[in-house]
Every structure is written in C-alpha cells, then in structure tokens.
C-alpha cells in the first residue's frame, strides 16, 4: 500500500512540475516586464497634464510640489523619459505600478512631459 501512496505522490509532483513549466513566465517575458520599452508617441502636453491631474496629484500635489510622493516640478533634472516611463510602469518604493491603469502611450506621454520639467 505504501508503494501506491508513494507512486501517487510522485505522479502528482511530476504533473505539478509540468504545469509550472508551461504557466510560469519565461526569461524573455520577465526581462520585458523588468525593463519596459517606452513606445514612440508624439508629445501632447495637454493630454499629459490631464493624465497627471487624473492620476498623480493625490500623491504628488496639484502643482507637483510633492506630498506623499516626491516633488516632480524638476523631474527632468533627475530622470530621462525612459527612466520615468519605467518607474511609472513598474512602480518603485511606495509608488504603485500604473501599467494596468494607463495605456503605455499615456505613460510615455506623461514621461516625456515630466522629463522636460527642469
């Protein structure tokens, strides 16, 4: 009887391993998630401001002066557009990820807009 139990456990472990092999993300997918690529968009400052007002002022303040989040009034001195895109997409520290809330093009537009604030 013990052989049947051990055989069953071995079979279950093998089946679980096969399921994990096909459901876990691959190296390429993990690399893409860790280093999101900013899409090419045409800058639209009005839309960027609208996106920021709708999503960012609760933490960064209505004038981007900071609050819960850091001051963003001169963010272009600290980060370029690609870096800002990565931070907004993935999140960092207390800042949540916005990749599921905003379209990549919206994040890219905001990133370009913030990178010009120097």
From TrEMBL:
Organism the protein comes from: Paenibacillus sophorae
Keyword DNA-binding: no
Alphabetical UniProt keywords: Electron transport, Heme, Iron, Metal-binding, Transport
PROSITE patterns xrefs: CYTC
A Pfam match: Cytochrome_CBB3
Cited InterPro entries: Cyt_c-like_dom, Cyt_c-like_dom_sf, Cyt_c_BACSU-c550-type, Cyt_C_IC, Cytochrome_c550/c551-like
Cited Gene3D superfamilies: Cytochrome c-like domain
Post-translational modification: Binds 1 heme c group covalently per subunit.
Domain named Cytochrome c: residues: 43-118
GO CC terms: membrane
Name of the protein described by the UniProt record: Cytochrome c
Residues given in the record as heme c binding sites: 56, 59-60, 95
GO molecular function, one term: iron ion binding
